[in-house]
Amino acid sequence: MGDRILFGIFLIFSISTAIQLFYYFYYYLAVSSFKPPDKTTELKPVSVIICARNEAENLREFLPSILTQNYPEFEVIVVNDCSEDETYNVLGDYLTKYPRLKVSTINKDPKFTHSKKLAQFIGIKAAKHDILVFTDADCRPVSELWLQGIASDFDEKTSYVLGYGGYNETKGFLNAYIRYDTAFIAMQYLGMAIRGIPYMGVGRNMAYRKTEFFKHKGYGLYSNLISGDDDLFINSNASPENTKVEFRPETFTRSVPSPSFQEWIKQKKRHLTTAPYYKSKDQFLLITEPLTRILFYLTFILLISFKFMWIEVLAIFGARFLTQTVTFSLVLRKLKEKGLIAYSIIFDIFSPVMNGVLYLSKGKGWKTNQWRS
């Protein structure tokens, strides 16, 4: 391979590195250095909304930790959406024990299928308070101060609060990758929100105002999609002026991770169906990072193979590697995620390739009205 071609590859390598460093220094480091603003002292009434389909065991285990939050006035609305397990009995038992619990039920109709958005909409309609906090049936708050932390971010200017929802730590490579992927996505959406680009939230831990939901006509054009009840609503309506992030440790939630690689693949594909509907600016930012990461590694391998400017190449590679490792370590510490640093070196290469393959095959086999969690 000629020197001119190799020099062109070196330029691509250098530009890719510069873009990568920009993401890390500007967006990702913002998460580790973020200092939350002063909280409001007035804790307004809150409605917690949980949609559940065949989640009896998870509700039995996790719902009490939500119903017993240390908060002056709140209600918990569980929408039992066509469950065929013991969900009805579990909720019936808890109704007698917890006065804050309310239940809305959607009965199964073989002639009509619907996505999770219908259940979410019913829960929102049933809520009597303006501040709505969302989580899933397989989630648990890590402390009894979860609601206090989320709700204290709401003032007269705030309509959206984006929290962090991690996964339980178990043994195995799959669990490590799920937790890495979750932490990396959080580093992106929290960091970009801090920098004035709130492009998504996670339904496991987020909040917004009921008045905002109806002001923007609910899910609008995205009502028929299987996903998007969390991220697309945020992407369409959140702004730097009306959005805050909240990731103090006591406000985290932890969820049950997918038990198998196949199940995680299905979940990931569902989430990726919403990506084409993001704002063009957000799509550009989200595509540029993994694309330049792939180019970074490919050009590095080529340049080292031909020993072209290898000292400079190794120095540039080392600068990016050190920045990536230190930044991600700081963010993981902030998010209380343990044991992922060693894995992150491998996943940094593996992740953009995996996500690219899943994105290209995301729509195969999915119906628009399929319920998802």
Write the layout of secondary structure elements.
Layout lengths: L2 H31 L12 E7 L3 H12 L6 E8 L5 H11 L3 E6 L9 H11 L4 E4 L4 E3 L4 H6 L8 E4 L1 E3 L5 H22 L11 E4 H6 L15 H7 L5 E4 L6 E3 L5 H12 L7 H26 L4 H25 L6 H20 L13
Parallel strand pairs: 1-2, 1-4, 2-3, 6-9, 7-10
Antiparallel strand pairs: 4-8, 5-10, 6-8
Helix pairs in contact: 1-6, 1-10, 1-11, 2-3, 6-12, 10-12
Question: Unreliable segments (pLDDT under 50, ≥5 consecutive)?
Answer: 364-369
Distance between the termini: 51 Å
Mean pLDDT score, rounded?
92
Give the structural class: alpha/beta
Give the strand order, joined by hyphens, for the main sheet: 3-2-1-4-8-6-9
Describe the structure.
With 373 residues, this protein is of the alpha/beta class. The chain is 51% helix and 12% strand. It is built from twelve helices and ten strands. It has helices at residues 3-33, 56-67, 87-97, 116-126, 146-151, 173-194, 210-215, 231-237, 261-272, 280-305, 310-334, 341-360; strands spanning 46-52, 74-81, 101-106, 131-134, 139-141, 160-163, 165-167, 206-209, 243-246, 253-255. The strands form two sheets. A seven-stranded mixed β-sheet has the order 3-2-1-4-8-6-9, with helices on both faces. Strands 5-10-7 form a three-stranded mixed β-sheet. Helix 3 links the parallel strand 2 (74-81) and strand 3 (101-106). Helix 6 (173-194) packs across helix 12 (341-360). The longest helix has 31 residues, at 3-33. The chain is elongated. Mean pLDDT is 92; it is low at 364-369.
Give a brief outline of the structure:
The chain has helices at residues 3-33, 56-67, 87-97, 116-126, 146-151, 173-194, 210-215, 231-237, 261-272, 280-305, 310-334, 341-360, and strands spanning 46-52, 74-81, 101-106, 131-134, 139-141, 160-163, 165-167, 206-209, 243-246, 253-255.
